[in-house]
Design brief:
Blueprint (H helix, E strand, L loop, with lengths): L2 E11 L4 E11 L6 H12 L4 E13 L15 E4 L18 E6 L1 H4 L11 E5 L7 E3 L22 E7 L7 E2 L1 H4 L8 E5 L17 E2 L1 H9 L4 E4 L13 H8 L3 E4 L10 E6 L10 E3 L3 E4 L5
Parallel strand pairs: 8-10, 9-11, 10-12, 12-13
Antiparallel strand pairs: 1-2, 1-3, 4-16, 5-6, 7-13, 7-15, 8-14, 14-16
Helix pairs in contact: 4-5
């Protein structure tokens, strides 16, 4: 059955004036439409400009044949996929490193003494090591003279053409250069999807995890990857004390992102990757909100 929405609306314009409608009806796709989507629909359908405050009320969905071809509210937008874990009080990311302490520096209750009645604020306090949650490594993490977070350009963190290489942990924990061949790597963020994030925040996550070999790191370096990420506990094996993958990649100024998640949601390529940390001087690692951006043609 085809559905339509019936509603009243008022649209104010930033350059003056307004537009009102009562018992207005529009064809919709699906069973329902949010007020925001409905507002976007009206603006696109009527080709309105200089739109300010908008109001929708008396909205109801009715069963009624469509009167014309449904117009999408707007051009299909880019889709953003969150690839980072949530950081919360007490979270253990790496065994042996302390969990973050997240608390109030100024609570809403305590803030009442500083502000007018009904005006309250919270100021948080966070104490943590920089290797917490989903984080990015830059050269300073490994090399004293390497670039720190404040010295790496934004183009190295943002909207990087990316590729996903799928190497399930059930098939192997050791990822070699052979697994990386036949993929477009040059100048891309190479995201290694193992599925190990399924064990996140469990005892199993910390040991015998998927990792790259030194040969794989050399191959990525020689192919001029721009960034390498993995959904595992560490991009290196943690069975020993050496870290050849960190040494090889960071030595070539190839950034590393560890503890990714949700890579199964991504297509093999045709998207961009971002993982932007704060601009700290003297810091080589920091949590990021890692994300992929898929344009409408890749959904």
């Amino acid at each position: 059955m085809e559905k339509r929405v019936q509603f009243d609306f008022e649209i104010q314009f930033t350059n003056g004036g307004n537009l009102k409608g009562e018992d207005f009806r529009l064809d919709i796709m699906g069973e329902d439409i949010t007020d925001q989507a409905l507002t976007d629909y009206i603006i696109a359908d009527l080709k309105l400009l200089m739109v300010g405050e908008t109001k929708i009320w008396n909205k109801k969905i009715i069963v009624e044949p469509h009167k014309r071809k449904v117009i999408a509210p707007k051009k299909a937008a880019d889709l953003f996929i969150d690839l980072s874990h949530t950081i919360e009080h007490g979270l253990i990311t790496y065994k042996g490193l302390p969990a973050p302490i997240i608390c109030d520096y100024l609570s809403r209750e305590d803030s009442k003494k500083f502000y007018a009645e009904g005006t309250e604020f919270q100021i948080g306090k966070i104490e943590m090591v920089t290797n917490t949650g989903t984080y990015i490594d830059c050269p300073f993490h490994r090399f004293q003279d390497g670039k720190d977070l404040s010295q790496v350009g934004l183009e190295c963190f943002t909207d990087i053409d990316a590729v996903v290489i799928r190497i399930p942990f059930l098939t192997t924990l050791e990822i070699t250069e052979a697994h990386l061949k036949n993929h477009e790597i040059r100048n891309r963020a190479v995201l290694i999807h193992t599925g190990w994030d399924a064990h996140w925040n469990t005892e199993k996550y910390y040991e015998h995890h998927p990792h790259l070999t030194e040969g794989a790191a050399i191959y990525l370096r020689d192919c001029q990857a721009k960034l390498v990420g993995i959904d595992s506990h560490n991009i290196d094996s943690t069975d020993g004390k050496s870290r050849p993958v960190h040494t090889t990649l960071l030595g070539a100024e190839i950034l590393i992102v560890e503890h990714l998640c949700n890579l199964y949601l991504l297509p093999p390529d045709g998207f961009t990757f971002s993982a932007i940390p704060p601009k700290f001087k003297g810091v080589g690692t920091f949590p990021v909100r890692a994300m992929a951006k898929l344009n409408s043609s890749n959904k």
